[in-house]
Amino acid sequence: MTTRLKLWLSSASIYALFVFWYTDFSGPISDAEVNQFVTTLSERGTAPETIANLERFFRNDSGRQFLMVNNIEMNQQPVIIEGATSAKSADQLMGKYMTHMFPELLKRASHPVIFGYAVHSAVDITGIEQAEKMAVWSDGALFRYRSRRALMEIVANPDLQDSHQFKLAALSKTIAYPIETQLYLGDMRVLLGLVLLSLTALFDNIRLARQSKR
Question: Half-sphere exposure (CA, 13 Å, Cβ side) for 19?
């Protein structure tokens, strides 16, 4: 096997492994998986309306990745709660929550895509009651989930049940809803593919240039 072939095969192998990890090839969530999820949340005492809303989302699964759009207003005067007595601000409470959340996200190829602070109130708001209240947000975020199955596994994880209180204490209000992308230029599979292609081509050209000088 030539050096050039090894170079390109190595790059292709890295990309294939990433795509295999980053993509859920298991297809839509089965009815049995959803039934088990509903049972788990019911046994925890989760509100029936919350279970019903999530159940509809999971039973209509397409098997694709999705982005969770988050409008956030941080609580300027969060209460001190058990397990986070050292957290004096909403950011610290949210950080404590994300300490538990990030590992669960990352091992399921899910991660933040965008996070930022609001620089103005809503510039366009129509057809919403209490428009003044809904026009004001402090932060916005997008999170990528490998699939609805990944979200279901996170929600059902008992290890995250206690930490969810930190998030609730950090927020004064929030709206989060999922979208399936029709155009997503920030997809890591696209970005990694371009980076690997560029680097491999660069190293290949350097190798060829050195050979031509000999």
Answer: 12
